[in-house]
Amino acid sequence: MKSLLKIALFLYFTLITVLQSFAAVKVSPTLIELNANKGNGNYLTTSFSIQADKNETIRYKLYPEYFTITDRGKMHSEPVSANQDNLIPHARFVPNEFTLKNGIPQLVRVTFTDLKSLPDGESRMVMFIEDVAAKEIILPNKNKNVNTRLVVKTRLGIPIYIDKGRFVKTGTFNDLTVDKENGNLVYKMKLSSQGNSKVRYRGKAQIIKDKTLIREFNMNSNTIRADGIFEETGKLPENLETGNYILKVILTYKNEKGENKNLIKEVPFNITNSI
User: Fold this and answer.
1) I want to staple 24 with a disulfide (CB 3.0 to 4.6 A). Which of 47, 53, 171, 176 is the partner?
2) Helix (H, G, I), strand (E, B) or coil at 63
């Protein structure tokens, strides 16, 4: 059993090292958000750059996909979609295939046309950047009679959003609870977006006892899809003393006017000797 564990750990750390060696691709920006109401005419133009390590020569191809956001804030991409908020039929990008070498960055220009036909609110797509050829790596193995091969293919995605017409970004804090699961205290949070454009928030949580701040920690930043919900479960800090507490969560997002808005909710909970 110990031998199997050692082999598993060896392969795990070897894999991490290999993947880190292929992570030297820089993309800027990593997210593009555009406002069609601020553009002139019926089109918008944007760009992003891609740069590889000086010692690498890699050929990449570009292709877009439509995507939605799940209740957990994750991206779910779809190669084909007939949804009206799909930006792909409006997108033109140059180049769609290129070679990176000598650490020289490649600029990709993206133009969106016929914006008037888009619905009010948010439209989106993700631009994927992918190796043309997969890399095959032979992992080191103490057993000379066994070869372990790993096929690595890099794919990076840049989400692109366009807000157009009358769009609204309104967040709501629906529920916050503290429960005990498997001997751990966890918080469960439910948020919603009431508008036709996503809400992206950041924030912090505070643990208060007898009106005194005991702990403070950052919450994960996430995205609530337009007219959708978001749910998150996370662990509370450990080693809290017995007693009565309040969990206060303070989240901040920007509305359609660029103004900061707060979502605040608090809930009492208790620590007993049995926790």
Assistant:
1) 53
2) strand
